[in-house]
Please model this.
Amino acid sequence: MKKKLLVYGGLTLAILIYGFFAAPNLNPLYADGAMFWAVVATLYLAVYQLMDMKGFSLQMENGPGGRPGLQFHRGEGGKLKKWVLIVLAVIWGIYLIAVAGSSVLFGSRAYRDQMSVPVEKSFDADVQAIDVNQIPIVDKDLAYKLAGKQLGTESSLGSQVVLGEPTMQQVNGKLIWAVPLHHSGFFKWVANNDGAQGYIVVSATNMNDVQYVRDYKIKIQPNSYFMDDLERHVRFGAGLFTGITDYSFELDESGRPYWVVTTYENKWGFNLPEANGIILVDATTGQMNRYDMDNIPAWVDRVQPEDFIINQLNNHGQYIHGIFNFSNFEKQRTSEGHIIVYNNNRCYLFTGITSVGSDESAIKFVMVDMITKESVEYKINGATENAAMSSAQGKVQDLGYTATFPLILNVNTQPTYFMALKDAEGLIKKYSFVSVKNYGIVGVGDSVNEALDSYERALKQSDADANIGSGETGKTLSLEGTVLRIAQEVSGDGGTTYSMLIKEKPNLIFRAPSELSAELVLTQPGDRVSMEFPDTKDSTVVLSSFDNLEISQLPATETSSSVSSSDNRNVSSDRPASSQ
Model:
């Protein structure tokens, strides 16, 4: 009896220790939970069978190689019990049937329809106008580098902590990367058990805006120790019998740090995970609160895991006509890459969709709400993100710069990729705009404004008159009015572009290259001018003709004008964005 208690007690202790450190899901309706209980049952039944054998004994003696260890011995007459084999067969049979039944072979329709059919919208009608200075230029890798540089300026802090994973988010209307600080090792955790000192905030739109926030301790961390480990803390708290995934570091509007942990259930056996809420963990105190999809706090940006969305989009395209579509008829897949973007203060996943077998051509673009999973598609034929990146890199191939993953902007009704170009150290050196419809049209510059000017000139020179949505009607409008403000901008390649506001149309910004009219350089506020331009819904209009009505009245000796240096130009974008 003592021997049995010792063996069963040792096995139970080993399982408990494993369960504590591995923190498995204990719900058998999930694949990992079912596997856990099947293995546990197998171990207990195996020990029972061994203990029942006649002459069974465990002895400490030298084993192979002369190493001491616990050796198993059984005498003659030990037999396997049939009921043990039957129970094991039933347990593993049920598990294997559940695994097989969860496959697409028995549920292709469920795989296809998990992602709802996107709502089709016009690209022009659904864009958000933003200032070019607010385009997010800092990607995840650069945010990590900038945070590391800031960490190095804090004396003695760098030896105590390491950087966690940056998370893109919007806090009080500002697009930022939040980077938590983690303990650099076990002894640092012991010495600072109340948490690592704070986090670092990196602006997504300004590389020079980096702040170290020390007001909060980060006690709960991924890959930490004992109950301070994030996954273990959640599993043995609010997530013991549910699926948990996607640990996202987010700040509320006051700057208090939290971990947003997605909970999910499976829609088809052990497969097709679907987010059904979150567990919100206070990173400082460890306090947890669980929310379903109907009452997510307003400041939380992400609930849907990125891999869930990509898999669902791919499943919809792969099984659009079932699993036996060997001709690949109408099959689609996501392009190789995606980006997290913001539009009207909402967080989205944005990716291109291409036909199966196509490498460089996108047939449409899709954005999916990262909370509700509502999806929108734009029917735009053009280059994939990777093709645009290659095109931009080709413009600076002599410099060896690499492009960041692009986002899409609306520039003069043209869907346009925007990306930064970085050197071998990961620092931004130039910026680039690439036409989606014709990725041979590229603009590059040392600043965003220079790159935009270069791109606009490339569009004009190539007669790129393609129009997406209902931005341009094809009509040409005429206007005679008074100049309120005018500014000139010289790009890196020497070209000059003029921007002006007209009293009679104060909601529009009129732009014109210097080549359009020699009178532009002489124009100043108060002048009466006559212009022609395309009928468009954009807030920025490119002139097709320009005439300063005051020029003929000027004295012959007057050859200069007063020009303002301000630049209020805007472009349209479906949202600020970042790479993952």
